[in-house]
Design goal:
The complex is a heterodimer of chains A (109) and B (288). Chain A has 109 residues and is of the alpha+beta class. Chain A has 2 helices and 5 strands. Chain A has a 5-stranded antiparallel β-sheet. In chain A, a hairpin with a 7-residue loop joins strand 1 and strand 2. Chain B starts with a helix and ends in a 16-residue tail after the last helix. The chains are: A alpha+beta (109), B alpha/beta (288).
């Protein structure tokens, strides 16, 4: 999914969703600043902020916003994954901003 | 109401559809946590939303030209800014995106003025493209700074150079009939480039305008053309003329007057006119 398709998906969202955006990236992160991912209550809808490398952490943080969490920046440190058994070799640090993509679609919980 | 990411994405798509540049900014961290997630977008003179502080809005807007050179079409970065609104002040981290086509300087006529003008356009951050119908002039090695150098046919000069409203076109061809061919095509575009300049003496520019009137153009359309192009610096050499054109492009973007700062500010006249040797410093009330 290219950037324009993701923007179209974001603009046309029907269901409540959380937007995760890489707002800064240092080192060899799999995706660069500007990469986006949309997360619904049931998981990822579209896009990616790096696949295996730290994405699980971002999805978990995104899901908190369905439970009343505030928008915030999540720092994902991938430098320690260098020694892991994961086939995805990443070695950077990225900041991912997490916010409600369409607050008007969120019902008060 | 704070523009949501979804609504802002719709704005970005709308701007891209029209071939316009758009900036979006969102506060991703701040001591005042109520500002986190506040957002604005800006496209030309239109804008919406706020970062939650008027001075932060202004600081970010003022930084855009230095953060994103106009030749870039896509950008994404985070920067820390300070804001101060009356007694309220602090720091905020802002994530800014640019979407849109690059702003270009299209020079038609690859002669002696085009060479320094291409260099200056590149220094100003514009994407420089040079067009001419002579292959030995429109040669890439003559314009190392240009992103594109094209051999064209003056019967359809912009066939391979689709132009956007935020582009700049400077007509410096070897003959006024060629400049004129380009000019009428530019004026007939549904959304002409915002800066169209044509070189020429007063007499030649007047002849061009007479021809435009005969071809059915209105004086309002004619007045959109900057002819003669450039600021009145008095220079004569190709480099001096290129500086005068580049200076006008800067003025056009920055909203300057083109007047020498010494005349605009009149520091001596305003602050020192009443001061003679040995006299007291004038009171502040006379300095307005």
């Amino acid at each position: 999914m290219d950037e324009k398709e993701l923007l179209a998906r974001l603009a046309g969202l029907e269901e409540p969703a959380v937007l995760a955006t890489i707002v800064s990236a240092k080192g060899s992160t799999p995706r660069k600043t500007g990469a986006r991912m949309l997360v619904g209550a049931g998981g990822v809808i579209a896009g990616t902020v790096g696949g295996g490398c730290g994405e699980g952490e971002v999805i978990e943080a995104a899901l908190e916003l369905f439970r009343g969490g505030s928008p915030r920046t999540v720092r994902v440190d991938l430098t320690d994954e260098l020694v892991s058994w994961s086939p995805a070799v990443c070695g950077g640090i990225m900041d991912v901003f997490i916010e409600r993509a369409n607050p008007d679609r969120f019902t008060a919980s | 109401m704070n523009p949501s990411p979804a609504r802002t994405a719709a704005r970005v798509l709308e701007a891209l559809g029209k071939g316009e540049r758009i900036y979006t900014a969102v506060v991703t961290d701040a001591a005042d946590r109520s500002m986190i997630g506040r957002r604005w977008w800006r496209s030309g003179r239109r804008h919406g939303g706020t970062l939650g502080s008027p001075s932060l809005d202004a600081e970010v807007a003022a930084a855009l030209p230095s953060l994103f050179p106009p030749r870039e079409s896509r950008g994404a970065l985070s920067r820390d800014f300070e804001y101060r609104d009356g007694g309220r002040e602090g720091n905020a981290r802002v994530y800014i995106e640019l979407h849109g086509p690059p702003a270009r300087l299209v020079i038609v006529g690859a002669g002696h003025i085009a060479i320094p003008l291409a260099r200056l356009g590149d220094m100003l951050g514009l994407r420089v493209e040079v067009l001419d119908d002579r292959a030995d002039f429109a040669a890439a090695e003559r314009f190392p700074e240009a992103a594109a150098v094209r051999v064209i046919d003056f019967r359809d000069p912009f066939a391979e150079t689709p132009l956007a409203p935020h582009d700049h076109v400077v007509l410096v061809t070897r003959g006024h009939s060629f400049d004129y061919e380009c000019l009428i095509r530019l004026l007939r575009m549904p959304r002409p480039p915002h800066y169209v300049g044509m070189i020429g003496s007063r007499r030649r520019v007047r002849a061009t305008h007479e021809q435009l009137l005969r071809d059915g153009f209105t004086t309002e359309e004619m007045s959109r053309v900057r002819a003669p192009v450039g600021l009145d610096l008095g220079g004569q050499t190709p480099v001096e003329i290129a500086v005068s054109v580049a200076a006008e492009i800067v003025m056009f973007h920055s909203g300057g007057s083109g007047v020498p700062l010494v005349e605009k500010e009149r520091v001596v006249e305003r602050f020192f006119a009443h001061r003679s040797p040995g006299a007291a410093t004038p009171s502040r009330s006379t300095t307005g």
